[in-house]
Every structure is written in C-alpha cells, then in structure tokens.
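re: ur question from yesterday

yeah so i grabbed the chain u mentioned. its 157 aa long if i counted rite. heres the sequnce exactly as i have it in my notes:
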Amino acid sequence: MTTTDEHVELVAALVRLLETRVLDPLEILLASGELLTPIKDRLRIEAEVWAAQLLGRDQRQATLTAARLIAVLFPGDGPFDPPEQWWRTPLGRAVARGAGHPSATAVSYSTAGAMLGITRQGVHDLVKRGKLDKHPEGGVTTSSIHARLNRPKENAQ
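ran it thru and got these structure tokens back, copy pasting raw so excuse formatting
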C-alpha cells in the first residue's frame, strides 16, 4: 500500500523529468514556450495518472507504464541499466516495486540495497536469512527483490 506522500513525490519527480528531458529540448527547438503551455498542462495531468499506475496494485499496468516512461525519458540502444542512485529516486523506487528491474535477472548486493532502500550489509543479512535469493552467478535475483518489495507489510520481517 502506498501513501499519498509517495504519490505526490512521484508526480513531482515525473513532472521534473518530463520538463527536463522532453519539454525543455522542445522549447529550445521551437524558440517559444508559448506553444508548450497546453502540453505542459496535459503532462502534469498525465503524471498523476502514471504515478497512480506505477504505485497501483495492477503489476501488469505498472510494468507497461514503467516501460513507456523509461523508453521516453531514458532512451538508448541498449537495455536500461540505471546506476544505483537512480533506484533511490521516487521513479526508481516505484519501478522497483511495480515492475522490478527492467533488464536484469540479478543485480549486485549494492544495487539490491539501493532498490530496497537498505545498505549492502542489510542485503547480505537478508540473503543469509533466506529472505532474498542469491543468484547462482553472483548477486541477488531481481525477482526476490521485487517479491520483497511487494510483500504484505504485516509479514515484513
């Protein structure tokens, strides 16, 4: 269950990313911000919807929304493999919870910690206690991270 504060924080982060990565370049190309006012207004509304989808219970919808946003906001020719600090952002946390890692089946202990919002040592402890799965080739499985992020809070041990 997500909080209103998480939703508000995610909406603000999405709006900032959309302005920086989509609208600002268009404003430079068009040499006018006037044309973008209706688009800015619409993107703010859509950011509310996308935040609700990313934080909602429908994991299929969260995954589709995450894929669309990542494709637009972080384009590239290779798989999306964000740096550790990205996972600590509102969008990174929402993607981790809703969709999991978009391109990896395992991540390092430090990346797992960033995805979970804990330390690398905390990840080691969870692996030792069987709360996270160690990948045979090293690191932690992203499926176990995703499952941990989505477990009911009353079973949070």
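noticed a couple things. The helical segments are 4-30, 37-55, 59-73, 90-98, 109-116, 120-128, 142-149. also The chain has seven helices and two strands.
anyway ttyl
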